[in-house]
Amino acid sequence: MTFTAQILTLYPEMFPGPLGTSLAGRALSEGKWACDTINPRNFATDKHRSVDDTPAGGGAGMVLRADIMAAAVDHAVERMEKYVAAQNSVRPEPVEGQGGEASGASTSSARTAPPPHAPVLAMTPRGKPLTQARVREIATGPGVTIICGRFEGFDERLFDAREIEEVSIGDYVLSGGEMGALVLLDACIRLLPGVMGASSSGDDESFENVILEYPQYTRPQIWEGRIIPEVLRSGDHAKIAAWRKQRAEEDTRLRRPDLWERHRDAPDQSPSGAQEKDKDKE
After folding, report:
1. Which strands, in side-by-side order, build the sheet including 33-38?
2. Tens digits of per-residue pLDDT, 169-200?
3. What would the DSSP string read from start to end of 17-68?
4. Quick one: CA dihedral 237, 240, 246, 248, positive or negative?
5. The pTM is what?
């Protein structure tokens, strides 16, 4: 199944944008993912194709109207459902076993299984912070619909009336949700099968295991009097792995104490004694 991204945006010319180059661009040309845009102005009801209005209660700026945005969302959801259904219909049917109700029941269950879910996300600073874990969940599905905010944001009733997940990519202000959508899609696309090559590519990246990645080095061995750490030149893979783990934990503790606390509290953390050592330092 091709991962499909639908973007609701007032500026469809921004897509695929940078996602049309490098790994994402190659994956797009190879059909590993698809990019479609929907302009909410197409659902406006006046001659000016207005999608916004002044904020209730007064104030500066304009607010995206709930009725028009909801119409665009409904269209996107219906289109995604049709796409997912079409993709499922071309899959080969399960092969029935020879004689036996058990095999027949299994086939029936497989045929009636609900289609995979494609979430609807809205890029907004009031949303839940995006995490690598959520990115992985989205990337394993059939696709995603992303609503890009503009102006002062959305009429809150849109989120009351529709199943929409609000997402933020950070604590800073952007001109609109398009840049956030590009960030989210890039994070998803690199995880799609065949995009990065080896299945293990990127396993040690920052945030994959909560903590930051260890420092990286390459040639030349000496640069401006600075030399690559001796352990990385030793050829001893066990020592290298231990050094990388230690540096990843140290850097996370010093640079991102919030991540370090989450790492310390993780139930599946290996019994390396890192927590006890850190407590002693405190």
Report:
1. 33-38, 3-8, 143-148, 120-129, 165-168
2. 999 999 999 999 999 999 999 999 999 975 54
3. GGGGSHHHHHHHHTTSEEEEEE-GGGG--STT---EEPPTT--SS-EE-HHH
4. negative
5. 0.84
